[in-house]
């Protein structure tokens, strides 16, 4: 499944036996016919749909099964579907495992064969080789992600540090403003007290002048209301 999204042309030729002859992609839910050719289950069902005869899309051999066998799971012993013999060889021409009887049959006449374990080992090595650039790419991505994680954490630390600095600066600024406010209000109160005292003294002086003038005016008015002799005597004395 690791290679299911990689185009087939990027694989070595020997990896093509992992691909479905119908869709030319890596097997999905593979099934095997009695002729030993394998296909995706969905591809085979689509190929057979509407056809009067169920035959192999590759060799055109008629299939006697309406429900093909699922491929044997990894680790289980695989037997030839035609001869029930162990699959000991791999046909390079048909790109499929075969038994010793298949090798000598007309179907595989003049074909090239290799021991299946030997071919499987080479096959594994080629897959391993194909994995190497992917593993290197994964390592690079993980390294880049690690750098991004470190950068993200550094950004968080830097933001928290800057936030503390801003709060400390504004705290000092607020304290300065509060002290400045108190100092100015104190100076204003002192100025008010000084000016109020000056005005109080001035008002008291004016009050004394007003009282003296009022007394003089009252005395003069009384003299004016007196008889002529008293008025003349009083004014002459002044």
TrEMBL record:
<protein>
    <recommendedName>
        <fullName>TRI35</fullName>
    </recommendedName>
</protein>
<keyword id="KW-0863">Zinc-finger</keyword>
<comment type="similarity">
    <text>Belongs to the TRIM/RBCC family.</text>
</comment>
<dbReference type="InterPro" id="IPR050143">
    <property type="entry name" value="TRIM/RBCC"/>
</dbReference>
<feature type="coiled-coil region">
    <location>
        <begin position="177"/>
        <end position="223"/>
    </location>
</feature>
<dbReference type="InterPro" id="IPR000315">
    <property type="entry name" value="Znf_B-box"/>
</dbReference>
<keyword id="KW-0175">Coiled coil</keyword>
<dbReference type="InterPro" id="IPR018957">
    <property type="entry name" value="Znf_C3HC4_RING-type"/>
</dbReference>
<keyword id="KW-0479">Metal-binding</keyword>
<dbReference type="InterPro" id="IPR001841">
    <property type="entry name" value="Znf_RING"/>
</dbReference>
<keyword id="KW-0862">Zinc</keyword>
<feature type="domain" description="B box-type">
    <location>
        <begin position="75"/>
        <end position="116"/>
    </location>
</feature>
<dbReference type="InterPro" id="IPR017907">
    <property type="entry name" value="Znf_RING_CS"/>
</dbReference>
<feature type="domain" description="RING-type">
    <location>
        <begin position="20"/>
        <end position="60"/>
    </location>
</feature>
<dbReference type="Pfam" id="PF00643">
    <property type="entry name" value="zf-B_box"/>
</dbReference>
<dbReference type="InterPro" id="IPR013083">
    <property type="entry name" value="Znf_RING/FYVE/PHD"/>
</dbReference>
<dbReference type="Pfam" id="PF00097">
    <property type="entry name" value="zf-C3HC4"/>
</dbReference>
<dbReference type="GO" id="GO:0008270">
    <property type="term" value="F:zinc ion binding"/>
</dbReference>
């Amino acid at each position: 499944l690791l290679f299911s999204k990689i185009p087939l042309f990027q694989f070595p030729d020997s990896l093509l036996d992992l691909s479905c002859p119908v869709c030319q992609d890596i097997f999905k839910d593979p099934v095997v016919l009695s002729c030993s050719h394998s296909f995706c289950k969905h591809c085979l069902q689509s190929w057979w749909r509407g056809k009067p005869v169920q035959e192999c899309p590759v060799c055109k051999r008629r299939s006697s099964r309406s429900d093909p066998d699922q491929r044997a799971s990894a680790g289980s012993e695989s037997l030839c579907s035609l001869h029930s013999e162990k699959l000991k060889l791999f046909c390079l021409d048909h790109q499929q495992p075969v038994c010793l009887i298949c090798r000598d049959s007309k179907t595989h006449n003049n074909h090239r064969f290799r021991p299946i374990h030997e071919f499987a080992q080479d096959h594994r090595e080629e897959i391993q080789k194909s994995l190497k650039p992917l593993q290197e790419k994964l390592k690079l991505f993980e390294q880049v992600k690690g750098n991004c994680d470190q950068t993200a954490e550094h950004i968080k630390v830097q933001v928290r540090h800057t936030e503390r600095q801003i709060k400390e600066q504004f705290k000092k600024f607020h304290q300065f403003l509060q002290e400045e406010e108190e100092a100015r209000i104190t100076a204003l109160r002192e100025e008010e007290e000084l000016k109020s005292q000056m005005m109080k003294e001035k008002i008291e002086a004016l009050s004394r002048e007003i009282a003296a003038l009022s007394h003089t005016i009252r005395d003069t008015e009384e003299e004016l209301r007196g008889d002529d002799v008293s008025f003349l005597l009083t004014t002459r004395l002044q």
